[in-house]
Amino acid sequence: MLCDHGMTLDIKVIRKLTYRYAERARAEQQAGRIPLNDGDTLEGRQVVISTDGGRTRLREKKRGPKTKKDRTRFRGAWREPKLLIIYVVDARGKQEKSFSPFIDGCFSGPDGVFHLLKGYLNALHIQDSDKILFVADGAHWIWNRIPGLIKALGLDPERVYELPDFYHAAEHLGTVAGLKKTWSSKERKRWVSKQRGFLLKGKSTDVVQAVRMLCRGRNSKAIKTERDYFVRNERRLDFSAVKALNLPIGSGAIESSIRRVVNLRLKGPCTFWYRENAEKMIMLRSFYKAGRWSCLKQMANTHNPVPAA
């Protein structure tokens, strides 16, 4: 497109401009200056918040002599970028089209993504919303930080719901049944189906008790992992109450975001990123896929860096 307009730029120049554009937008975001659209108010709305991690390979320098071609050696280590999504659902539990979601992420670990999340929720005045649902898989790094986030934002606990993804929970039930080697395939399916029904009816105590009974007297690491998943999430497994409010019981939105933002852009054969460049691309890709490119453009174009002393 640039060539068609008589502007010939080297690919390195375009890449440098792209990364600099992301730097300017990120500086505005970190300063709390996040532009909002007209329909971005959360007052009286039902908000769903989710976070999860993806996978991409980073180019990390490796100690030792250079190659015969005088190139620095590197290792292509798999690293986990953390992503977040904030979206609004209507009374039927469907995502509202009038509110473009907020998607963003970083490589700064759990604390980094929760710092990002707190900044966006403050900018959106999350305190004005009607109901707030945190839904995610069973990762420790997520649920260990949510109570602190709720307290830091000053949210009313009566309006906040925490829910593990139902489909991940059902998958864990299948894993538990699979560890019962004396059962036939039909017996496993029957047990899983029964426990899934209990989860949907709000009988989480019965499910946890059934898992405990199945795991009794067995000390393998796999058994402990599955048992602990249900024990520590027992109070959160109230799928019937959340479903009755027409709120989602799955974290498909964040799974889809990871696929679109990370897997289809940053993850690929023989693709290795410098960490700082990968983080910039995550921001650009997230805002583009969320339909908020105009917001990112406004942040990048209004950024005025403080001159050095």
Describe it.
The chain folds into two domains: 35-63 and 72-164 and 253-291, 2-Layer Sandwich (Nucleotidyltransferase, domain 5); 166-249, no CATH class. Helices cover 46% and strands 14% of the residues. The protein contains twelve helices and seven strands. The strands form two sheets. Strands 5-4-1-6-7 form a five-stranded mixed β-sheet, sandwiched between helices. Helix 1 packs across helix 11 (275-289), helix 1 crosses helix 12 (293-302) and helix 6 (185-200) runs antiparallel to helix 7 (204-215). The mean pLDDT is 92. Residues 56-72 have a biased composition (Basic residues). Residues 53-72 are annotated as: Disordered.
Q: Summary?
A:
The chain is an alpha/beta fold and 309 residues long. It has helices at 11-30, 109-123, 140-143, 146-153, 166-178, 185-200, 204-215, 221-232, 239-244, 252-263, 275-289, 293-302; strands spanning 46-53, 56-61, 74-79, 82-89, 102-106, 131-136, 160-164. Strands 5-4-1-6-7 form a five-stranded mixed β-sheet, with helices on both faces.
